[in-house]
Every structure is written in structure tokens, then in C-alpha cells.
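Morning. Coffee machine broken again, so started the prediction first thing and wrote up yesterday's gels while waiting. Chain of 270 residues, entered below exactly as on the submission form.
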Amino acid sequence: MEKTERLNAILDLLAAQGHVQVEDIVSGLRVSPATARRDLDALAAQRLLTRTRGGATMEAVAYDLPTRYTRDDHAAEKQAIAQAASALVPRGAVIGLCGGTTSTAIAQALGLRRDLMEPSNKPTLTVVTNAINIAAQLVVRPNIRVMVTGGVVNPRSYELVGPYTDTILQRVALDFAFVGVNGLDPEVGPTVNDEAEAAVNSLMSRRASETYIVADSSKIGNRSFATLGGFVFSNLITDNGITADEKAAFEAAGIQVTVAAPKRAAADRR
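Came back before lunch.
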């Protein structure tokens, strides 16, 4: 197996599991431990992963994020949603990513896609975001063009909001937008905690040909403070924690529901 193929295979393992050990690479790719370590070091030099003792994890953002980014009880569900969202995005697309933990997981999934890392004389993906942590996460990927909206930073979420953000978003056209929320109800629709973030999310949604609300099933049935005004909600990506009744209620409202199943841990498969 050529080195490029090995590196891509390692990234595939990392995307599927969130972490990889040297012995996983040795047994899976049939290479020596020394080769596995050199390959991990090469990927770490490109900031495509973070080296750990005996292996590696997905690349970590090099600054402290708010608590909601670092303590997440639904990480597996959000990773599944992220993979489903990433699969919708073709090479060369222009996408919008609002802030939040699920959108951050989508950025991570896109950053590990090997087709987006293949050599190219033009961007393989353009990402418009109002989240400074997502911008920092993707800017190190040489083939991904990142546009930050501008605005005032909300220190609780690392999202840019305000009239400057609106001015930029009104001048872009997106193929897809992925919008995270704090609550989701088939009647009220998507809601978030902050009215300024709701305004940005709504505008980004309207600038896209297709918009997907991305929300783990714990958000369903909850209502937060601010609604996304002027936006007709028609696509949802969630996890398999959604009940049959909840799914039926969304579909009765004309909403297409995509259910992503989290990968089971090795202990669960035994």
C-alpha cells in the first residue's frame, strides 16, 4: 500500500472512531509499528490529527472552548449526524455552518474527508461560518476556503452576531446550510437560546438552496427562547433516539427526516 493510501486509510479510521491506536494501524493496514508511528507523525504535522501516547485523536482546537464544547453527553449522536451531513456535500460546494457543537462535529467530518484533501488548483470546498472556532478548525486545510462573516463575538458560543454579520451573509449564495439548534418542535420549529444567534441562523438558512437543521434527539420536544423567523423548516438530520411518534409528527408537517445511527463502541458489539 502506497503512503498516500495509508494516510487516507488512517484518516478513515479516525473519522469512524474519533481515535486510533498504533496497533489498530498495524493490524488493519499490515505495516510495522515504526511505519504506523511515522504516518501518524506525518498527519500530525499537517494538523490533521493530534498525537497521543500510543496513537492519535481528531485534531483539537488549540484554545479553550466554552464548556458546552468540551462536556457533551451526546457526542456519539452528533458524530453520526455529522457524517450524514458530510455525505450530502459534494466536492466544490459552498456551504454555511452556524455555530454549536453539532456544526463543529460537521466541520471536523469535512476536514477529514480525503476527497477534499486531494491536490487541486481551486478550493474543493467553501465554508461560510459565523463561528470562530469552526473557522480556526478548517483554515488549516489548504483546499478548503473559509469565509468568516464578521460581527461581534458572543463569548458563550464563539459565534459572531450583529449587523456586520447580516451584511456579509446578504452577499453570499450557499448550496447548503447546516444549522444547529437548542430546541426543536414540529409546530414551533427550531429555536435557540439567543435572539441574535437566531437572526443569523435564519438569514444563513434563507441564503442556501437547501437547509438542514442538525439536532440530536435530546433537543426534540424542547423549546428555547428565540425562533428562526422567516425560515421555512423542511429538512432535519437527527439520530436514532427520535421516537416513531416524533418522526411521524415532523413528517406530517412536511419535514423530511434523516436518521443517523451512532456507531456502537467495541464493548457494545461484544
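The CA atoms of residues 156 and 188 lie 25 Å apart. Going to sketch it on the whiteboard this afternoon.
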